Known about the structure:
With 465 residues, chain A is of the alpha/beta class. Chain A has helices at 17-28, 71-82, 88-107, 133-147, 197-204, 222-229, 285-297, 329-336, 340-353, 443-464; strands at 7-13, 33-36, 53-55, 112-113, 126-129, 150-152, 155-163, 166-174, 177-188, 212-213, 234-235, 241-247, 268-271, 304-309, 324-326, 388-400, 403-404, 411-413, 419-425. Chain A has two domains: 7-238 and 401-464, FAD/NAD(P)-binding domain (3-Layer(bba) Sandwich); 244-396, Succinate dehydrogenase/fumarate reductase flavoprotein, catalytic domain (Flavocytochrome C3, Chain A, domain 1, Alpha-Beta Complex), CATH 3.90.700.10.
Amino acid sequence: MADSSRAWDVLVIGGGNAALCAAITAREAGASVLMLEAATVPMRGGNSRHTRNMRTMHEGPLPPLTDAYPEEEYWQDLLKVTGGLTDERLARLAIRSTEKHVPWMLAHGVRFQPPLGGTLHLSRTNAFFLGGGKALVNAYYRSAAALGVEIAYETQVVDLVLRDGRIESVTVECKGERREIRAKAVVVASGGFESNLEWLREAWGPPADNFIVRGTPYNMGVVLKLLLAQGARQVSDATQGHCVAIDARSPRYDGGIVTRVDAVSLGIVVNREGRRFYDEGEDFWPKRYAIWGRLVAGQPDQIGFSIIDSKSMGKFMPPVFPPEKANTLRELAGKLGLDPAALEKTVAEFNASVRPGTFDHTVQDDCRTEGLAPPKTHWARAIDTPPFYAYALRPGITFTYLGVAVDERSRMQLADGRPAANAWAAGEIMAGNILGKGYLAGIGMAIGTTFGRIAGEEAARHARA
Amino acid sequence: MHAPEPRTLPDLVEEAQRQLAICNACRYCEGYCAVFPALQRRLSFTEGDVHYLANLCHNCGSCLYACQYAPPHEFALNFPRLMAQARVGTWRRYAWPGFLARAFDAGGLAASLATAAGLVFFLLFAAWLAGPERLLAAHSDAQGSFYAVVPHGAMVAVFGAVSLFVILAFAIGFARFWKDTGEEESPFSAPGPAAVAIHDAAVLRYLDGGGDGCTYPDDEPSFARRSFHHFTLYGFLLCFAATSTATVYHYAFGWKAPYAFWSLPVVLGTLGGIGLLVGTAGLAWLKRRRDPELADPAQRGMESGFLALLFLASLTGLALLALRETRAMGILLVAHLGVVLALFATMPYGKFAHALYRLAALVRFHIERRRPPAAAAPE
Lengths: 465, 379
């Protein structure tokens, strides 16, 4: 149970990457630090336990990263996925900081490794953690404990009072018991609200019932809601987030990386009516996977079906669940609950419009359709070689962007334009400052680490002034 | 919360196929050891694949602590424990003669029975050959006092026969492993992979958790296990070297044991004996502190039995060295020979089997690695 008998210098709300970076930094600056993690020990770490890398700027080779990934290129990549819905000052701050994070992370027990099998396209841009996000989280928890950060598990914030720009009190609950925590400075790093199905339904309407939450079940958005209701300035909106198309059979929560289906660009995707609805070959799958969650969310019943033939089998990362398999399209449609005639018609039209080309999945090849709407602009091959395979897809929410505004010192901003007096925000709860929409693989860890470290430093300075 | 743990090898294989599909879709652990690169070469997993991977796993535990799907997650992955359970199942399957495979389940009992049998055997042997009174008096013989208790020829006959039997059992086990796991290339087709595999085993490359040490006995990375294993392995090899040197002394130069304290066989044996004491005590101490999630509780007896035999072999050997000029020599010699006999005779049917099959799996790993993967995930 969190110690409520003393006044802490810094209270960190949350237990993921940003919270850990803030807690470690504040403790190293000499502050007494209490960290509140809603989850149990095995499930600690928020969405960070599912991550695997950090997108990292570097001017030259920086092991394990190859070549260079300069600030400008990183910024342009971000600009493209967000369509300009970003804050350039904050974004560039995060981008520039990533290079300095690598030695800091190493010093706190995080280890890196060359890119994982099937992810060579990220070897220049993304630094992979040895063992993935849970190993990173474990290393940070060990570091924090060794430094003397007090960690309260299974402890949820149930109320807080934000008055005159100051967080005056924070009420927590642990195993049914409530306590009020006093702290000079507060870092909110408690994530978004994607685990809160009611809130998702408020934002999306009935389609939200068909969403699957890919990450932690603990991000209920309690702190976010309390802050926004009491005068924190809002960024982004409740429908924005990182949402990918995942296997429809995934668990309701916490399915993580293995639920992805990478077959999309190799075949076609049809909706419940058996019709295609978007260019499956627009770009490399890693650059497009982040838009397919919203595309599927926009279809009737929020479902899609990725369909390939035997030519494509074994040419993509193996998904965790086996595909539906049939020797004819008619039989496959039956298994998927689709109208067989509609599916046959869609595939026949698609096959007829495929132009001859040289298939090469490693480049944007010249295999495309002609006279088809929507077109498939690359990797278009006739679906004609049985057996046929299908994976049903659902929108998988990874995290949400609705959040609180911050400045370059990570300080929370108020709706009336003033900065908060004793509150800083880091991680997913403020990611919407930089990610207005879209997603760039590995930038969540860049944002969390940057603003976690800044928030910890600033909160400690405030508390000890 | 979870289904009861599978116990038979076919059940374990089925459960492994479920867990391997999750691992293959995740791949976060690929930097920890050889198992993950090996599994990522495959799209699906045959029975033989599971048997192979189970023996490639060193049970370091790093992947369990890093696993986002470990219990209480509903996918309930505990890869190291599953591999440990399947591994001993494969050893039973490869054991020759088959009926002795039961010793794997008898665990500590098997080691104790073998020890008792070894002791009684040599006691009776010595009493019959030399007479009970020589047992307490033979120490006074200047050279060749050991052989006054048990004649050299008898020792050679007993240990020679047991060694040949063990070598045969290992050769058959190895051949069965190779056939069962479905590798078509011969393990002896090229020296490269075997050399790398021996190197990996000699330095315990895959007990390093990807660099910082493996998470054993708990979630803090540490080289403790690797260090104690090195003490044990190299202690064992030094003792083996001591015996080999003594054999050369005996046949080539006609010098008879016991040898002087600073002679090569005694120095090697003493160092090896100390290594074995430190190593096995350390491993047993770590085992007691091991996270129970990592272990297969059914194998505790087998593991402890093997460690105890190594420890006792070393203890009796060092005691014999220290007291060889006293009346205790005859009894200690009998005890030492009895324990060593038990150690050798149980090698193919206890924890020692890991050395053979781990090395075989490493050879296969390096053979396989030279080929392009059957199923390449595209970028």
